[in-house]
């Protein structure tokens, strides 16, 4: 399971965090993001259209679509049925971890403290979403976790921008970050998929910039 989520985290330096209201936007958005070099996509379960969006995106070539804002086993079951190949949660509970293990779906649960990480380790997890990153100590906190938790890897999310993403991506214990700046609402509303592809291309390049920082 840890190896499976690590594979997802290594697909793209930035995992777009997507809040999509219209199913018809799903396929062109996924194609634009993939064309820009971002292959792992997180569709948050925050809109009525989310599960249908996952179904549509799951059919796009080369894209690995996951579900975000998964709060419990029910959400997880619905997401997997819709075609989600990984799930992301803002937090970590034992029922959710056990449901993910039973379903055989890679889980990226949220943590913000050392105690959260230790609880995850007790459940057999080693890869986590650090959330909300910007108000939980930022890159300095993630770096500090590298001392006691040398084998743990993170995807910081929450307040990540094009400007500060390299600060995280340059850390040895960070495999990727999650961000929403790649799909600005005005670009989505206008169907400006070329702009979104360009933003995705820039985000994909941040991985190289971060590693060279």
Describe the model.
With about 210 residues, the protein is an alpha/beta fold. It has a single domain (about 1-110, about 160-210), classed as Alpha-Beta Barrel (TIM Barrel), CATH 3.20.20. It is built from 10 helices and 9 strands. The strands form 3 sheets. Strands 3-2-1-9 form a 4-stranded parallel beta sheet. A 3-stranded parallel beta sheet has the order 6-7-8. α2 packs parallel to α10 (about 195-210). It is globular, with a radius of gyration of 16 Å. The mean pLDDT is about 95.
Overall structural class, as computed from helix and strand content, comes to: alpha/beta
Amount of helix: 40-55%
Shape: globular
**So, the CATH homologous superfamily?**
Aldolase class I
Mean pLDDT: 95
**Number of strand segments:** 9
**The CATH top-level class label:** Alpha Beta
Please list the strands of the largest sheet in the order they lie side by side.
3-2-1-9
**In what range is the share of β-strand residues?**
15-25%
Radius of gyration, rounded? Answer: 16 Å
Topology as a string of helices (H) and strands (E)? HEHEHEHEHEEHEHEHEHH
Count of helical stretches: 10
